[in-house]
Amino acid sequence: MIHSEGRFSDRLYRSTHEVWERSHRHPFLIEMREGTLDPGRFIYYLKQDYVYLIDYAKMFAIGGLKSPDLETMVKFAELFHSTLNVEMELHRQYAERFGVTREELEKTRPSPTTVAYTKYMLDAAQGSLAEVVASLLPCMWSYREIGTAFAKFPGALDHPLFKEWILMYSSEEFGALTDWCIGLMDRLAEGLPERELIRLEEHFATTSKLEYLFWDMAYRQEEWPI
Ligand SMILES: Cc1ncc(CN)c(N)n1
User: Fold this and answer.
1) What's the gap in Å between 198 CA and the centre of ligand 1?
2) Which parts of the sequence belong to the Thiaminase-2/PQQC domain (predicted)?
3) 83 CA closest ligand 1 atom index
4) What is d(CA 156, CA 162) in angstroms, rounded to the nearest whole number?
5) Average of pLDDT values for 205-224?
6) Residue range(s) defining the domain that contains residue 46
7) Is residue 18 situated within a structural domain?
8) Within 6 Å (CB) of ligand 1, which residues are found?
9) Is position 3 within any domain?
């Protein structure tokens, strides 16, 4: 996407772009885009992502709680609803196709990387609303970037398994919610001292790296050693 200079979100984007590029080049995403990803790896990803999203949705609930006005609160309620009932419904439908019940999905044992990612975010969310948004933003923004790039890749939307996933993350609805979060990040960063901006940048960089690790974990089908 085109991103104008001078906005805090632009600074965030530039500072982590290398990490995002590495995600885009990860075999999980390359094989998914080309339609060759092993379905076993995809199911593993879906199950981990389902329990990830349960905690991720709480970030929006916390955002609502920390909102300075009703308009912001309403938007966070929309994001909360959309995660639980739209994004997670995609996972439930995929699971059904693979004969995985809702109960099994919900009882997925979070992998070490899933635990690291969700606990990091929820811990950061104990701080200001700006910290909540800086921590959750790579999740939305990087998926929008991946989804829109995949949608343009020849043949990707014809794939019988990955089509719905690509449609979800390249959709206008998902893009609009992502843009709203980016705009909110910019508004919340306005006038903050450099020391606080650095803290926000650290959250954004850490969850960007955790996004990379999440793809890697899914590709390796990471398990606890015992
Ligand atoms: C790990 C992860 N990151 C981002 C998204 C997109 N909400 C997701 N479903 N899962």
Assistant:
1) 24
2) 17-220
3) 7
4) 8
5) 98
6) 36-219
7) no
8) 49, 52-53, 87, 139-140, 143, 211, 214
9) no
